[in-house]
Amino acid sequence: MKTYRETYIRKAEIAQLILLHQLFMQKDSRHLIFQGGTALRWCYGGSRFSEDLDFVTSLAPEAVEKILSGAIKGIEKLMIPHFGVGAVTVSKKSARADALKCFVDFRPETSREKISIKLEFEGLVAGKLPDVQNHVLSSLSAVAYLMASGEFRVPRPNAIIVAETTAEILSDKVRALLERRYIKGRDFFDLWYLYAVLKTPVDVEIIHRKFTLYRAAFIAHRNIDFFIKPLKQDAEMMRGAIAQDLSRFLSPDVIAVHQSDGFAAFLEATRSLFGELQAKGVRLP
User: What does the DSSP 8-state code read for residue 221?
Assistant: First the structure.
C-alpha cells in the first residue's frame, strides 16, 4: 500500500502545475474543463494531495491528444529548472470513444524515482456542459505561495484554467459515491470539504444533470439510503475505506485527528448531504 511522502508530493504538485500551465496555454484548451480533487486543491483551497489531473471535455480523444502533444513540448523545457535534466514520456493507459487516460512521466537523470502524473479526459454528451469558473493560474493562493517560495519557477504563469464550479464538483462526488464499484475514501473527504467547510449549496438541477452529462453511462451500485442509514457493516466498511485511501493523501498527523472519532465529520457530512438530496426529491435514473 502506498503511503504519504511529503518530499515526493511536493515534486508531484510542482509537476502538476507545470502540466496545467502548458495544457491551458494550448489552442482549443478552453474545451478542457478541470475537475476532481486536484481542481479542489489548486482552484478552491483544498488541503488534500490529489495525484490525478481530471478533465471533462466535448472534444474527441484525437483532439485531446493533439493538445497534450503540444503541451509536452513546453513541459520538457520547464521541468529542467525544477528537477534537473531528464526525459518526459507519455504512456497511454486506455483510449475509448468516450475517454482518454494516460500517464506523463518525468525521469530526472540524477534520481532513480520518476515523477508521474495521471491524466484522465472524460467525454461529455454532445450539447451538454457543466458550469465552469475561469481562474488565472498565478492568482490562485496555493500557486502564489509556491511562486513566492521559489519552488514554482515558471515565468508569468498566467494561463487561464477552466474549472468546474464547486457545485459541479460536489455533484461529481455524489455520482462517484453512488456508482463506484469500490468506495474510495477520498470522495468522503472531498464531499466534507465542499459541503461542510466551503458550504457549497446542493443544487438539485446540477445533481440530476450529472447523471446524464458524461458519455459513459451512469450505473448505480448503491442507493441514496445507503449513506443516510448505513448498516453497521457498511459504516465500518466506509471507515475502513477512508482510513486506507486517505493515508496516501493526508499527513499522518491530520489522519490521526480525523480517525480519533471514527471519521465522524466525514460520515456526518455525507449522511446530511444525501438526506438533503432525498428531501429535495432526487431520484436515481
Answer: S
CA dihedral over 34, 254, 145, 102, signed as positive or negative: negative
Q: Is 180 strand, coil or helix?
A: coil
The x, y and z cell numbers of residue 276, run together, are 438533503
Query: Which domain CATH number covers 50?
Result: 3.10.450.620
DSSP H or E run through 186: helix 185-192
Provide the domain count of the chain. 2
Q: What pLDDT does residue 1 have?
A: 52
Q: What is the pTM of this model?
A: 0.95
Same domain, 37 and 136: yes
Q: Would you state the pLDDT for residue 77? A: 92
**pLDDT at residue 112 in the model:** 84
* Residue that finishes a domain, picked among 119, 135, 164: 164
DSSP calls for 18-69 = HHHHHHTTSTTGGGEEEEHHHHHHHHS---S---EEEEEESS-HHHHHHHHH
DSSP of 51-117? -EEEEEESS-HHHHHHHHHHHHHHHHHHHHHHH-SEEEEEEEEEEETTEEEEEEEEEETT-SSPEEE
**Residue 194 and residue 126 share a domain:** no
Going by C-beta distance under 8 Å and a sequence separation of 6 or more, which residues neighbour residue 263?
Answer: 188, 238, 239, 242, 243
Q: Return the pLDDT at 22.
A: 97
Contact of 125 with 215, CB cutoff 8 Å: yes
Identify whether residues 160 and 196 lie together within a single domain: no
pLDDT of residue 147: 97
User: Which residues of the chain are under the pLDDT cut of 50?
Assistant: none
Q: Are 185 and 242 in contact (CB under 8 A)?
A: yes
Are the beta carbons of 16 and 38 closer than 8 angstroms?
yes
pLDDT for res 4: 83
Helix (H) or strand (E) holding 123: strand 115-123
